[in-house]
């Protein structure tokens, strides 16, 4: 037999692959006894194999007896097969099912684990204390709001970096804790599991992540200021504040409106406050036989004579449409929203143009329908007299007057709402807007 087989440790696991041994052509009783003594001695040192008997004849080992588990039987067969001079092994072992022999090893293993845990408690306490101290240090550094706001002017970005610093110190504390315990290999499994869990949570909360990233971009871009009059995807109102989750508007009805920042970031935003000069328009119809150019001149003169209508940009008028019974004129004018309410100014301009057209003899016609009756109809219709033309009213010399001052009620409500201290407002008047 090869000498290398004698150097193998019989208590270790068998090799994954062994070279087939040549069966000797002769044997003797002395070698069989030596093999039996060697196997019996090995089994005597193993508690689970002490009831195993080995009989050897012509190099064939027959194992007989009882073992606690099937795994112990396989182990006994593997040990016997590795002894020099063994040709083959017959496994005749039976498993014992008595309570004492099966529970005793389990209890022994539990006792050994408890003793090991008790002995490791001081070292585990030191490792845990080191990890907690490092995590607390990171928490203290991340809580320095003034430092982060000084380093990064954007409050939302400063808070985000503080969160990353806190999380980074926690990871460092965990690594140091495992390093002290000698279990750094466990860190790879923990990080791998955390990565898989992070991917699953990412898919589950992708809308929340989208909203969070949108909040960050809006805080950097600053698309509007507080109290700006805006229209976001058909939602009109004045901006109260920009939080890390939503944009708060005060509608023109005085109601609070919350729009998710993911919607605001991707929406078309119409800001009425950025440019105070705003154009208004309205339509007026005159008779189909009237002079459209003269009607435009009369209405435009009435609009431009109003005090709140700006001279620059100039007001204008066009022929919008020629209908069956009227000609539709469209008038344009400009006003300053800082001094004139848009809706009030438009209403007064419309009234002024209408009065001017009527005073100049223009009739704002109603829809006209032509009816044709069959001559064989059973009912006879009497010829109606043509209506007398209406008398042209005297020109009105009274000047259009009214309160055109902007409405301050909504602005006052916004100011009162913003007066409440809120630390999560991301609007910063010191940063430039888009």
Give a quick summary of the entry.
This protein has 434 residues and is α+β, with helices and mostly antiparallel strands. It has helices at 29-44, 70-81, 99-142, 145-151, 155-181, 184-204, 206-221, 261-266, 292-304, 342-359, 409-419, and strands spanning 52-57, 60-67, 88-95, 229-232, 235-242, 246-251, 256-260, 269-271, 277-287, 316-322, 326-336. α4 packs across α5 (155-181).
Architecture overview:
This protein is α+β, with helices and mostly antiparallel strands and 434 residues long. It is built from eleven helices and eleven strands. A hairpin with a 3-residue loop joins strand 10 (316-322) and strand 11 (326-336). It is elongated, with a radius of gyration of 48 Å. The model is unreliable at 1-12 and 395-400 (pLDDT under 50).
**Spatial strand order of the main sheet:** 7-6-5-4-8
The sequence of SSEs as H and E is HEEHEHHHHHEEEEHEEHEEHH
| Count of individual beta strands | 11
Strand content: 15-25%
Provide the gyration radius in Å: 48 Å
Topology of this structure?
Elements: H1 29-44, E1 52-57, E2 60-67, H2 70-81, E3 88-95, H3 99-142, H4 145-151, H5 155-181, H6 184-204, H7 206-221, E4 229-232, E5 235-242, E6 246-251, E7 256-260, H8 261-266, E8 269-271, E9 277-287, H9 292-304, E10 316-322, E11 326-336, H10 342-359, H11 409-419
Parallel strand pairs: 2-3
Antiparallel strand pairs: 1-2, 4-5, 4-8, 5-6, 6-7, 9-11, 10-11
Helix pairs in contact: 3-5, 4-5, 5-6, 9-10
């Amino acid at each position: 037999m090869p000498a290398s087989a004698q150097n193998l440790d019989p208590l270790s696991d068998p090799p994954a692959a062994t070279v087939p041994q040549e069966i000797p052509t002769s044997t003797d009783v002395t070698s069989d006894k030596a093999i039996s003594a060697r196997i019996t001695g090995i089994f005597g040192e193993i508690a689970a194999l002490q009831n195993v008997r080995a009989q050897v004849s012509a190099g064939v080992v027959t194992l007989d007896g009882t073992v606690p588990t099937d795994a112990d039987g396989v182990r006994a067969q593997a040990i016997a097969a590795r002894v020099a001079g063994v040709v083959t092994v017959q496994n005749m072992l039976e498993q014992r099912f008595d309570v004492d022999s099966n529970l005793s090893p389990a209890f022994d293993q539990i006792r050994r684990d408890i003793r090991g845990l008790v002995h490791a408690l001081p070292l585990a306490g030191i490792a845990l204390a080191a990890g907690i101290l490092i995590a607390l240090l990171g928490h203290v550094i991340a809580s320095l709001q003034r430092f982060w706001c000084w380093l990064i002017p954007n409050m939302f970005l400063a808070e985000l970096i503080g969160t990353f610093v806190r999380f980074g110190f926690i990871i460092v504390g965990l690594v140091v804790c495992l390093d002290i315990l000698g279990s750094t290999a466990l860190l790879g499994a923990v990080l791998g599991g955390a990565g898989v869990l992070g991917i699953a949570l990412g898919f589950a909360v992708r809308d929340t992540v989208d909203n969070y990233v949108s909040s960050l971009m809006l805080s950097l871009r600053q698309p509007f200021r507080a109290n700006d009059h805006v229209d976001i995807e058909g939602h009109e109102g004045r901006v109260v504040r920009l939080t890390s989750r939503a944009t708060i508007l005060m509608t023109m009805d005085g109601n609070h409106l919350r729009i998710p920042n993911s919607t605001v970031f991707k929406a078309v935003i119409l800001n009425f406050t950025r440019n105070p000069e705003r154009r208004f328009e309205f339509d007026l119809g005159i008779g189909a036989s009237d002079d459209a150019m003269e009607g435009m001149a009369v209405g435009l003169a009435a609009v431009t004579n109003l005090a709140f209508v700006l001279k620059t940009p100039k007001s204008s008028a066009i022929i919008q449409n020629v209908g069956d019974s009227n000609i539709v004129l469209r008038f344009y004018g400009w006003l300053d929203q800082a001094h004139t309410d848009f809706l009030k100014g438009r209403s007064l301009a419309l009234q002024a143009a209408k009065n001017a057209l009527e005073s100049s003899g223009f009739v704002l016609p109603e829809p006209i329908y032509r009816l044709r009756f069959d001559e064989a109809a059973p009912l006879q219709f009497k010829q109606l007299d043509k209506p007398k033309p209406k008398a042209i009213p005297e020109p009105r010399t009274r000047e259009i007057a009214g309160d055109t001052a902007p409405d301050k009620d909504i602005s006052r409500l916004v100011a009162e709402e913003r007066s409440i201290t809120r630390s999560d407002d991301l609007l910063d008047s010191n940063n430039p807007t888009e």
